[in-house]
Amino acid sequence: MIDFSMYEVKEPKISAYRCTSCGTLYYPAPMVCKTCNCRRDPVTNKGWETFDLQGPCTLLSWTRLWNLPEGYTKKNMMFGIVEFENGLRASGQLEVEDPQTGMKLVAEVVESDERPGKSVNVFVFRQ
Amino acid sequence: MANVGIVGIGHTKFGNSSEYDLSDVLSYAAFDALEDANFLSRRREIDQVIVGNMASGLFCHQSAVASALVSRMDMEPVPAELVENGPASGASAIKIGYMAIASGMADIVLVVGGEIMRKVSGWVGTDYVATMLQTETEYNMGLTLPAFGGMFTRMYMERYGLTQRDLALLAVKNHENGSKNKYAHIQAPISIEAISDGPEAAVVNTYVAEPLRMYSTCPVSDGAAALLLVNMDSEKAKSFPKKPIRIAGIASATDTHCVHNRKDPLVLDAVRIAAEKAYAMAGLTPKDISFAELHDAFSILELAISEEVGFFEKGKSYLSVRKGETNIDGRLPINTSGGLKSKGHPVGATGVSQAVELVRQLRGEAEKGRQVSNPHYGMSVNFGGFGNNVVALICAKE
């Protein structure tokens, strides 16, 4: 039997950013901090910290989309905008039975290959 | 700064032009504008051609369309450049044309906006249009422009009490106007019974992006529109047969690329700031505007934009629609052309098409039944992205 764990399978993640000079949080990453104008180097991230953006969040709005773009084979999909406990917001896919604005959700990150090009990590908001 | 006026207008009938080459469609509108200005035989005297187009590389597999247009119109060696600002490419092209004249670099500028979107299937086109969203946090998630239209509509409904019937009333109004517009994609009136009140309404008016339905969403269209701009203070301005319609104010503003990063996603800062700048430039206030063309790619945007530009209080615009105040014979007619909902939305053409409608109304050339009574100032708002790059234009009858 082959032990695939040696290949260190990576969990899909989405990163948020913190400017270490002033503590302002961002998603997605900016090139310059709006609060203290600190520059972020996209290669080294020097002066900035990253952290995983996931977990508890609140649903701000949602839609069920019936005209999906190229690459999506489902009949319809739901999307939502959420706010995390740290104040950051994100848009992503929504998978709940009866969505209601203001409901508490959990943001998970999964890999998606539906859009053209390489696979990407996407948010799925669930109860 | 020089006064800039519009002395020629051209417009194709919006609809399905997918069998045609984009440069032919652009040329058709350009030819009409030059003929309207009686300038066709003198077209090489034009100082600058500016084309507004969003995505010919994607939709038509064609690039450098400004050069193609000049050659198709036999206008070489007139300089030509392309302007791209998503669905606001057309109005941005007008703004750049205005700046060329105001700066003194040009006296006569031909502005053409156009797009052919129907060479590809609807789902491929939806994907292409979605590429204007923020790549990492929106496009990659599977989001599209209608998805944001749906979420925006839900927030507005929950906060201000807007109903599905109110959205249907907007569609009825705009289809009534569009049914009389010779350039409109969909020249058919619709009834409130058919899309809202009747027993078959839910079938006729199906969901696109809940709570947005089909009749609250613009069609996918092909087409082009053109303007001939002139320095009104120059000698050349005297040679045009029709009195110029003056560009009294034109301005643009930007907002966050990610919709979720706006402090209040229902507030359209770029619309408000662009409008404020255009009013200041024109020395006008919202009360001076006689009629407006507002970018209703989704019907909710007609309401939200009309509030941001100062026509109505926040969350109250739909009450004015219920009273008929934005109808052709109302106190402030909105989307007299039929708007994007009925006239259509070939993305790169829309801003120029809105300006053509302002000129037609101010000249008194709109069709019977949709001519605004004695207008002095017309305003248009062309909405790029999901409100992240917006252009406001005010035109004046001299």
How are the SSEs placed, and which strands pair?
The complex is a heterodimer of chains A (127) and B (398).
Chain A: E1 15-19, E2 25-26, E3 48-52, E4 55-65, E5 77-84, E6 89-94, E7 104-112, E8 120-126
Chain B: E1 4-11, H1 22-36, E2 48-52, H2 56-59, H3 65-72, E3 80-83, H4 89-102, E4 108-115, H5 122-130, H6 135-139, H7 145-160, H8 164-178, H9 192-197, H10 201-204, E5 207-209, E6 212-213, E7 223-231, E8 245-254, H11 269-282, E9 291-294, H12 299-308, H13 317-322, H14 339-343, H15 350-363, E10 377-384, E11 389-397
Parallel strand pairs in B: 2-3, 2-4, 9-10
Antiparallel strand pairs in B: 1-7, 1-8, 4-7, 5-6, 8-11, 10-11
Terminus-to-terminus distance of chain B: 17 Å
Shape of chain B: globular
End-to-end distance of chain A, in Å? Answer: 37 Å
- Find the CATH topology of one domain in chain B: Peroxisomal Thiolase, Chain A, domain 1
Considering DSSP H and I runs of 4 or more, what fraction of the residues of chain A is helical? Answer: under 10%
Helix content class of chain B: 25-40%
Task: Give your account of this protein's structure.
The complex is a heterodimer of chains A (127) and B (398). With 127 residues, chain A is an all-beta fold. Chain A is built from no helices and eight strands. The model of chain A has no long low-confidence stretch (mean pLDDT 93). Chain A has two domains: 14-52, no CATH class; 54-126, OB fold (Dihydrolipoamide Acetyltransferase, E2P) (Beta Barrel), CATH 2.40.50. In chain A, a hairpin with a 7-residue loop joins strand 7 and strand 8 (120-126). In chain A, the strands form two sheets. Chain A has a five-stranded mixed β-barrel. In chain A, strands 2-1-3 form a three-stranded antiparallel β-sheet, with no helix packed on it. In chain B, strands 3-2-4-7-1-8-11-10-9 form a nine-stranded mixed β-sheet, with helices on both faces. Chain B has a domain at 4-121 and 221-239: Peroxisomal Thiolase, Chain A, domain 1 (3-Layer(aba) Sandwich), CATH 3.40.47.10. In chain B, a hairpin with a 4-residue loop joins strand 10 and strand 11 (389-397). The longest helix of chain B is centred in the middle third of the chain and has 16 residues, at 145-160. The chains are: A mainly beta (127), B alpha/beta (398). The A-B interface holds A 27-28, 60-72, 77, 79-81, 89-93, 101, 112, 114-116, 120-123 and B 121-124, 126-127, 130, 134, 136-144, 146-147, 150-152, 154-155, 158, 206-212, 258-261, 265.
